[in-house]
Specification:
Radius of gyration: 20 Å
GO molecular function: fructose-2,6-bisphosphate 2-phosphatase activity
Helix content: 25-40%
Number of helices: 10
CATH topology of the domain at 2-94 and 156-293: Rossmann fold
Oligomer: single chain
Strand content: 5-15%
Protein name: Phosphoglycerate mutase-like protein
Pfam families: His_Phos_1
Shape: globular
Binding site for substrate: 8-15, 60
GO cellular component, one term: cytosol
CATH class of the domain at 2-94 and 156-293: Alpha Beta
Strand order of the largest sheet: 5-2-6-1-7-8
Length: 343
């Protein structure tokens, strides 16, 4: 089995501000340093060994990756102790969505120019004109369409295409251990909220049974929407197995999509943060402790099948952090999680 564990970076100095971050570099905050150390120790204490760690070159992600690497403990392989930590390899395609001229500028939740009279939706042409006018004035609202971008930046559609390149560079080459040598392999990827959501979605689309219009958890026209809201140093996990070879030749290292076998792709964990229980503020502790259970894709599917309503606290937490309806006063907090603002 090829396992890919995604880790969002620790809290950065920019996470404390209402600004567009993207490629703008910022170091980890003091809390972010502790979060990165906590996730590293968590993996070590749960005997989670990584064979390789890829990271965004942004300081906040790279520092998180190094903390994970430094905590990896020696393991026994064929009666020998391997004391070599996994390599940390920066990859430009693991950077967050690029917000162009908006980076470092305040983000705006809503702007009246993007809504017509009486709340009527604007046409595409009207939206284009309204956005261009706002950008000239130095106003940078949350853009309404996946194709929209700030000048000099990327759209969500651009990010999705880049995520597919990241999959080809950081995930698919390691299928050869599974296909040709029958070995398990574990890849860690330290990156950013939006980028991770699109990479997970790209992996889901590789499943041989994936149907774009399916109703399964993890499927859909835009599966990336289902994998947003990662907290700082929250982790997610995807497992890839070969369902049947389908090809006879070896995987081409230069282009791993050549001779790609039929795959089974399963998202087993999402937004797991139990390692942060001792770091969070008391008011948030109960919410943090339930994340691993209630953002696990397996448990989400079980919720769908159960007739009994979950406990009020759990239901409220899921609603608050998954964008399923929040109070107006919590709207900015929820938006930050869903869109990766300050990511």
């Amino acid at each position: 089995m090829l396992t890919v564990t995604f880790i969002r970076h620790g809290e950065s100095e920019d996470n404390l501000k209402d600004i567009w971050a993207g490629w703008k570099d910022a170091p980890l905050s003091p809390l972010g340093v502790k979060q990165a150390e906590a996730i590293g120790h968590y993996f070590a204490n749960t005997n989670t060994h990584f064979d390789i760690i890829y990271t965004s070159p942004s300081a906040r992600a790279h520092s998180t990756a190094l903390a994970v690497q430094q905590a990896q403990v020696p393991i026994h392989i064929n009666s020998h102790i391997n004391t070599t930590p996994p390599p940390v390899i920066p990859n430009l395609n693991l950077r967050e969505q690029h917000f162009g001229i908006a980076e470092g500028q305040p983000w705006v939740l809503k702007h009246p120019d993007l809504v017509g009279p009486n709340g009527k939706a604007l046409s595409d042409k009207e939206l284009d004109v309204a956005l261009a006018s706002l950008f000239v004035r130095g106003v940078f609202p949350v853009v309404p369409r996946p194709k929209d971008k700030f000048p000099g930046g990327e759209s969500l559609e651009d990010l999705a295409r880049r995520a597919e390149v990241a999959v080809r560079e950081c995930v698919l080459p390691h299928l050869r251990f599974l296909k040709e040598e029958g070995q398990d392999y574990h890849v860690a990827i330290a990156s950013h909220g939006l980028c991770i959501s699109e990479i997970v979605a790209a992996l889901v689309r590789l499943d041989s049974e994936f149907h774009p219009k399916g109703e399964e958890v993890g499927a859909g026209v835009d599966p990336g929407k289902r994998f947003r809201g990662l907290l700082n140093t929250a982790w997610a996990r995807v497992e890839l197995n070969i369902s049947r070879t389908g090809t006879d030749g070896p995987i081409d290292v230069a282009d791993p999509s050549i001779n790609l076998p039929r795959l089974q792709v399963k998202v087993t964990h999402f937004n797991c943060v139990e390692h942060l229980a001792h770091l969070v503020r008391p008011i948030s502790l109960s919410i943090y402790l339930i994340f691993c259970d209630y953002f696990s894709l397996t448990n989400l599917q079980q919720d769908k099948e159960q007739t009994e309503e979950p406990k009020a606290t759990s239901s409220a937490a899921r609603k608050f952090f998954s964008g399923g309806g929040v109070e107006a006063s919590d709207e900015k907090v929820n938006l930050r999680l869903q869109l990766g603002l300050g990511s």
